[in-house]
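retry 2 of 3: previous attempt timed out while embedding magnesium ion. Reduced batch size to 1 and resubmitted. Inputs unchanged:
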Amino acid sequence: MTAGRSPEHVPAPTSRITTTTDDVATPPHGLPAPGSSEEPVAPPSGGALADALVALREAVAAARFQLDIPGAQGARESGAELVRQLDDYVLPRLRRLDAPLLTVVGGSTGAGKSTVVNSLVREQVTPSGVLRPTTRSPVLVCHPDDLRWFSDTRVLPELTRTSGSGTDHRTLHLVTSPLLHPGLALLDAPDIDSVVTANRRLATQLLAAADLWLFVTTAARYADAVPWDVLQTAQERGTALAVLLDRVPPGAEDDISAHLREMLAAHCLGGTPLFVVPESALLDGLLPDPVVAPLRGWFSDLARDAAHRAAVVRRTLDGALDSIGPRTAGLAAQARAQVDAAARLRADAHAAYEGAVADVDEGMRDGSLLRGEVLARWQEFVGTGELLRTLQDRVGRLRDRLTAAITGRPQPGTELTAALESGVALLVDAAAERAAERAATSWRTSAAGTALLRSTDARLDRSSPNLRDAIERTVRDWQGAVLDLVRREGASRRTNARIAAYGVNATGLIVMIAVFASTAFIPTGAEVGVAGGTTLLSQKVLEALFGDQAVRALADEARADLRDRVAALLGGEEGRYAELLAAHATDLRDAEALERAAGAVEAAR
Ligand SMILES: Nc1nc2c(ncn2[C@@H]2O[C@H](COP(=O)(O)OP(=O)(O)OP(=O)(O)O)[C@@H](O)[C@H]2O)c(=O)[nH]1
Ligand SMILES: [Mg+2]
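retry 2 succeeded.
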């Protein structure tokens, strides 16, 4: 049986830290040093940096990157990762630099991580097994005196503490062992390259909470890609690292460890301590003690040497703090991209409905409304002499209404009003329907817009189900308003004598017809269909009516009123798009808050 080898490079303290350590002679915060009592850990202390980090944490947690644009998924993940690392590690570590050093044992699936942890404490504290992956629920082993540091939610607050082993990813199984020196705890993590997503995610989270990573790989697996990606992150974050090369066939130690060292150097991890554990027969599931003794000795030395331990803690903490600026900058950039994408979508929807308002406007002016049903009713209105009588004879109107009531024949004026109503309603309805379609089509040209449209049960590519009713109501209200307008005009002193003489209903209808006639054109000819056998009403009367300055002024006012009402209605339809967007959009203030918070963290450091 070959004994394990000591690492060639044991990280020496790069600098003495100036912050509090668990130096037994000078216990921090007036508390007994860890290991000397069972007293609970003091509540977290603040400090300007901790305050700034708490504010940053809130800004990151508040920023939602919901629009499906390039980089959004990455930002969501890295934002969540940053929040977790602040909660799990940076804040608790910053508040208590004297807490025991947490070493997370992570690495390839089935590399023997749990076996190594068990072998270090000479006890089956964490299940190892033949089925992959075995470890799902992390197991933390520490000296009994250190238990108080981990039994509350100071670190890894999301994980529920348990005293028994399990398979729940949301629990942390706490175990003590007198074989570990106080001041250093081991955490057996799930496999970093797991086929089980929850394992991978938890392993990443745990590694981000480590003061020191013990990276376990095997002779067979050390060149696998995934663990090297994770090691790369450790390197970038400046995390303190040690590597354990497990299950090395006897005789191959030199070759394999030389190759692994080359790979570490190529990844800028040249100085990383490397432990080599030869393939050995297990006894009661444990490696022979001489094989793991060097590793245990290294951990004990580290735990005993307060300055060395503090240097490792500080190195990893500084690395994590250094990474916060660039990570937050990436999130802020994505937040701004989200704001821009939302603005584009908002503009697309607005353009579609602005187009609809313009369509309605055009349809009101181009005379097209004065065809079909409206034209027929107008001709009837004019041709039967109804208009003339209405204009000339107020009594006649009453008589006709009575006749209509008795014979059941509706007044031509009523039919014309109804025809106008449905003509306008059709125009607005068609424009709204086209706008809904156009807005949806433009949203579908982007992944973000497509995802938004899919996120709701409402069919935004169609008008609202109640829109038709709302349009009809709006047009009727407008017709009523036109009559009110005429009535007010009639009552005013400025009024034209003719309007006063004609009566409200007839003038109102004339005004409505004038609304839909092209502005420059006085609708005396084909446009208002007086050509066809109008014997009772002379061309001259109509010309006089439509040429009347007061009628034209009223028509302008009525047209503007109708346009406003339609614009409000279509604005409501556009509002459906705006609301959907607002429910998913990032605020520019979120981006600014991220930038401010990151700046405050830098300033506090
Ligand atoms: N013979 C021998 N078997 C080993 C050694 N190390 C681990 N094993 C076995 O390999 C299997 C996996 O070991 P574990 O310790 O569960 O590996 P792990 O890395 O914790 O696995 P996961 O938690 O699933 O990622 C178990 O059956 C162990 O008994 C060793 O050095 N020698
Ligand atoms: Mg395991």
